[in-house]
Amino acid sequence: MLFELSHDCIFGTDANPRMARTAKMNMIMHGDGHGGVHHHDGLIDVNGIFKNRFDVILTNPPFGARIEKTQVVTNADLPTEEQAKKYIEKYPNYEEKVLTPLKEYANYDKGKGKPILSLYEIGVMSSLTEVLFIERCLNLLKPGGRMGIVLPEGVLNNANLQKVREYVESKAKILLIVSIPQDVFIASGATVKPSLLFFKKFTDEEAIQYEIITQKAQKEIRCKYKTELEQIKKSDEGEKNLKTRQKEIEMHIENEIKAQIKEQFNYAIPIADVEKAGISTIGAEIENELKPLEKEFAVYRKENNLWNNVLSKNIYQIMSDDNVYRIPMINGTAFTEPEVFYQTKK
């Protein structure tokens, strides 16, 4: 069991060759397998590192760098014939899920290669590496999988990254946010204040629940403003004024939809502010408030079943028309309108 865990279940990748070698050597010294650790671009699939494969991901992506539009997938990113054969035997659907797409990306545009940015939905919102790695890790996780990631605090409060935050909230639940002191990474040259963010990717049921809530909100809010938008189209006002009014209403619609989704898909997000995280500005060991926080959060997550998948069930209720209705529930919350299960009167 331990052999299988260390040799077949642990993977890592780093674009820095020194970091990759250090990780491999560390695992060798501890008697663990190191075949899953690669010197490779973390945004591109390699070996067993591909979509929907992981239960847990821990990552400290590079901060502040950008992926340029000129950075593309090339033939150098493809496995060798020997590696491909090995991976096809080892991983179900590897050829379909990884090898074939990689070949298509490398041969894109007559062999010029597909831009890495275009592989990610967030790529149209931001080219920052720390932002792209959020989507990358969410893609790698299985439904219900968990991740811990070190991010610059600006990802949480920068107005320019609002759409990125909304994207993440549509794919995963935030389990915990921990603000840590800038001192932690000063010794390694980092100058931004970091935070630790912990997510749980939506289970299949949570993804369905979120999609239903979103569609319902869009339908209700757009219906609310339908008449007003139609009146604008029929108005004799100047074209410029009409476009301004229409734009204002569309903005109201968008904001109300977001507010309704947040209200109906509501959950608590614990936030902790740690002042001492075990390391000083010069790299010396000091008091570590993260250790008691870990114990406190362990109790909290057990009490709130954070690791568990949502429980779904149907409840049945007699309504005022005397018919029996079925109400689909997830974690005690109705996520669709009641539907007639049995009619008492015909």
TrEMBL record:
<dbReference type="InterPro" id="IPR052916">
    <property type="entry name" value="Type-I_RE_MTase_Subunit"/>
</dbReference>
<feature type="domain" description="DNA methylase adenine-specific">
    <location>
        <begin position="9"/>
        <end position="76"/>
    </location>
</feature>
<dbReference type="GO" id="GO:0008170">
    <property type="term" value="F:N-methyltransferase activity"/>
</dbReference>
<dbReference type="Pfam" id="PF02384">
    <property type="entry name" value="N6_Mtase"/>
</dbReference>
<dbReference type="InterPro" id="IPR029063">
    <property type="entry name" value="SAM-dependent_MTases_sf"/>
</dbReference>
<dbReference type="GO" id="GO:0009307">
    <property type="term" value="P:DNA restriction-modification system"/>
</dbReference>
<keyword id="KW-0680">Restriction system</keyword>
<dbReference type="GO" id="GO:0032259">
    <property type="term" value="P:methylation"/>
</dbReference>
<protein>
    <recommendedName>
        <fullName>DNA methylase adenine-specific domain-containing protein</fullName>
    </recommendedName>
</protein>
<dbReference type="InterPro" id="IPR003356">
    <property type="entry name" value="DNA_methylase_A-5"/>
</dbReference>
<dbReference type="InterPro" id="IPR002052">
    <property type="entry name" value="DNA_methylase_N6_adenine_CS"/>
</dbReference>
<dbReference type="GO" id="GO:0003677">
    <property type="term" value="F:DNA binding"/>
</dbReference>
<feature type="domain" description="DNA methylase adenine-specific">
    <location>
        <begin position="129"/>
        <end position="229"/>
    </location>
</feature>
